[in-house]
Amino acid sequence: MSVLICGSYAYDTIMVFHDQFKNHILPDKIHMLNISFLAPEMRREYGGCAGNIAYSLQLLGEQALPMATVGKDFDSYAAWLTSCNIEQKYLTRIEDSFTGQAFITTDMDDNQITAFHPGAMNFSHVNKIDDVSENIQLGIVSPDGREGMLQHAEQFAEQDIPFIFDPGQGMPMFNGEELKHFLDLATWVTVNDYEMQLLQEKTQLTSEQIAQRVQALIVTMGNKGSVIINTKHRIEIPVANPTAVNDPTGCGDAFRSGLLYGLVNKMDWETTGRIASLLGAIKIAEHGTQNHHFSLDSFQQLFKQHFNYTLK
């Protein structure tokens, strides 16, 4: 069986400014801002939520089926996916658009200025879950084009395929009623603590009321771990201590890969949450969102070291 991952693909261009933005932005001139930063360090990474989630799930040995719209400049990313043995049959090329692009400049205080061009993401609704020929055990709706997210959630529900709703940075595109509709369609919902507050404000629902609409609500809290809430239990998941803290970008996507792995293998929430936590710790030690590597055997050994019990 397979996991269908609906979401974005993007190139991340990351530049480093060897100073602090605050030293060059004049507060009394903010209304007429015209400034440039010399960024001698630059790297280009493969990213996007669907791409990142599929990458870590594939490392765990599951068949990841990403579904996304990509652009005319996707050839190098496609070659990377081939090298990772990640399926591409449900990636639709939009020939007159670019693949999503994030341009990120980071200063020495780890502040970031980001510009994002959605490009082909805006056409994500052209992909239909009805067109998937594999036997899909579960799915995820992660940040993508607005219409695509709405339609894919409805299509999962119509086919009785359980799925995670992961609104992420896509949440501002939806009003409170639309977010409630997502919650009613979804099987599980996962957000970080900031997104949780925004979800509550937009829907006017408490965390308990949100949890009552789904089988489980999963909230990540950075270095404080995560919590999984359902109608019967509140499960505290400890953080897995990373070997280094180099780049938090993509940690949430790695965490979601762990959730999918635990769910598809019918594991309990205590184990599933810890798998997700460990994946986030492995990712944060590496720069970029798809540069971490491990075998399933080494992951199981790390899991035992961190949590003192065997992952089966």
Strand content: 15-25%
Query: Roughly what percent helix?
Result: 25-40%
Quickly name the level 1 CATH class: Alpha Beta
Count of all domains: 1
CATH-level-2 architecture: 3-Layer(aba) Sandwich
**Going by CATH, what is the homologous superfamily?**
Ribokinase
Total helices: the number is 9
Side by side, the strands of the main sheet go 5-4-1-8-9-10-11-12-13
How many β-strand stretches? 13
Low-pLDDT sequence parts? none
Question: Any idea what the shape is?
Answer: globular
Q: What is the H/E order?
A: EEEHEHEEEEHEHEHHEEEHHH
Find the structural class using helix and strand composition: alpha/beta
Radius of gyration: 19 Å
Mean pLDDT across all amino acids: 93
Biggest β-sheet strands, sense, barrel: 9 strands, mixed
What CATH calls the topology is: UDP-N-acetylmuramoyl-L-alanine:D-glutamate ligase
Distance between the termini: 19 Å
Describe this structure in words.
The structure is a single chain. With 312 residues, the protein is α/β, with parallel strands linked by helices. The protein has a single domain, classed as UDP-N-acetylmuramoyl-L-alanine:D-glutamate ligase (3-Layer(aba) Sandwich). The chain is 33% helix and 23% strand. It has 9 helices and 13 strands. The strands form 2 sheets. The protein has a 9-stranded mixed sheet with strand order 5-4-1-8-9-10-11-12-13, sandwiched between helices. A 4-stranded mixed sheet has the order 3-2-6-7. The model has no long low-confidence stretch (mean pLDDT 93).
